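Aim 2 progress. For Peptidase S41, the working sequence is reproduced below.
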Amino acid sequence: MGQKLKIAGWVSVGVVAGALTTVSLQTVARGAMTPLPLEEIQQLSAVFGLVKTDYVEPVDDKKLITDAISGMVSSLDPHSQYFDKKSFKEFREGTTGRFVGVGIEITQEDGLIKIVSPIEGSPAFRAGLKTNDLITKIDETAVKGLSLSDSVKRMRGEPNTKVTLTIFRKDENRSFPVTIVREEIKTQSVKGKVMEPGYAWIRLSQFQERTVEDFVRKVEDVYKQEPNLKGLVLDLRNDPGGLLDAAVAISAAFLPENVTVVSTNGQLAESKATYKASPEFYMRRNGSDPLRRLPAALKTVPLVVLVNEGSASASEIVAGALQDHKRATIMGSQTFGKGSVQTVRPLGPDTGIKLTTARYYTPSGKSIQAKGIVPDVMIDESEEGNVFAALRMREADLDKHLGSGQGEEQKDEAREKAREEARKRLEEEAKKPAAERKLPEFGTDKDFQLTQALNKLKGRAVLVSKTQTERKEEKKEN
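Predicted C-alpha cells for this construct:
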C-alpha cells in the first residue's frame, strides 16, 4: 500500500471455511482510553465473581474474560469479531488465497452453518457438498449455538487430517455424514475467455493478494487472442469481496486516473478517507504498478458488469465506481449491501478485535451498507425468471445489521413467501439431470445473464426482468 494508507485495518467481507476474505489496510493499537462506566464495570466484576464461586464446576479465568469480550463485540453487528491467538493467525493468512481447510464459503442461518458455495476443486467440492446444504455437526460437536468463527476453527486444521461434517440437505430432506480430508486450498480468483469474435468474459470470484496480477495476465491473454476487442463482460456474481486495494486497482484498470473510487466515513478522523484510481492507493510497498502492462484500449472498451445478491463489499465498490462514473452498464440483481468497514485493532502480540468503524460510499456519495448497488438493467437468473434468487440472504436480512445511515430498508413480508416458493422450485430442479437444470455454470453458452450482457454490448434486445424491483428504503423513526 502507498504511504497515504496507514489508517484502518483489515475489513471483513465474507467467511470461508479455512479463510476470512478481507479488505486489508494497516493499523496500530490506539493509545487513548475511553473513561469506563463505573457502575456497569462493577456489575461485570460481580458477575465474574459469582461465576467463579457459585458455578457448578470451576471455570478458567481466561475463558470467562475472552468469552465476555467476544460477546461484547459480536453483539454489535454481524461483522465485528474478537480474535484469539489461533483465529488472528488464520485471519491474516486468509487474504493470500491459500489456507488449510475443507474449501467452502459459509454463512449462518437459523443457528446452523449454511454453505454458500464449495470452492471449485476443493475437498468439499470433490465430496459433493452443495450450495444451501446446512452443516449441523462438525465431528461430534453440534453447530447450534456455535459462533461462525468457532465453526470455522473446527473445520480448519493441519493438512491431511480428517473432519466429519453432518449435512442436512433440504431439497432431499435427509441428513448424512461426510468425512473430508483437509488440505491446502489455493483459490483461483480470476477466470476468463473470448466468448466469440470481438467479445470476452472475465470473472472475479474474490479479491485476493494475487487477484490484480492474475487479472492483468488474463486481460493480456484475451487481447492476444482478440486484439480488436469490441466489448467485455466483467462478472462479479457471487463475489463476496476481498482486499480493498485490489478493488481499487480493478476499478482503476477501467477508469481515468485519479478519479474517486470509494470513500469511507465514521467517527474517527482516520475513518474519513477517499480512495482514488491512482497507483498510490493500490500498490503494495516496494512493488511496481501491475496495471501499467494493461492495453490502453481497456480504458475505453464497452463494458458490462454482472452482479447479483451474492456480490458483496469489494465487488460492490467496483460496481458502484464504474456505475457512478458511467464507465459500465451494471446488469443483474441488486447486490448484497455489505458496505461497512471493519478495522482490526491488536490487543496484544497475537490477539485483536475486528470492529466496524465506517461505512463505504460510492463516488456520488451513496451508502452501500444494507442497500447495495442497484443495476442499471435488472436481469433474471434464467429465461424462466429469477428462479432461486429469493433464497439468497442480503446484508439487510442479517440480524443486528448496521443501517445505511441514509434510511432503513422496508420490511417486505412477501419476500418470505417468495423464498418458500423458490425452495419448492429448487427441490424440483435438484431432481433433474445436471444438463437440464436452469442455472448452468457461469461463463457457459447457456449462461442466460451472460448472454444478455453480450446482447447489450452488441446493441441487441435484452430480456429485462419483469418482476425484479429495487428494495426501497424508508425513513428512520425517531
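The domain at 190-338+361-470 is CATH 3.90.226.10 (2-enoyl-CoA Hydratase; Chain A, domain 1). This observation will guide construct design in the next reporting period.
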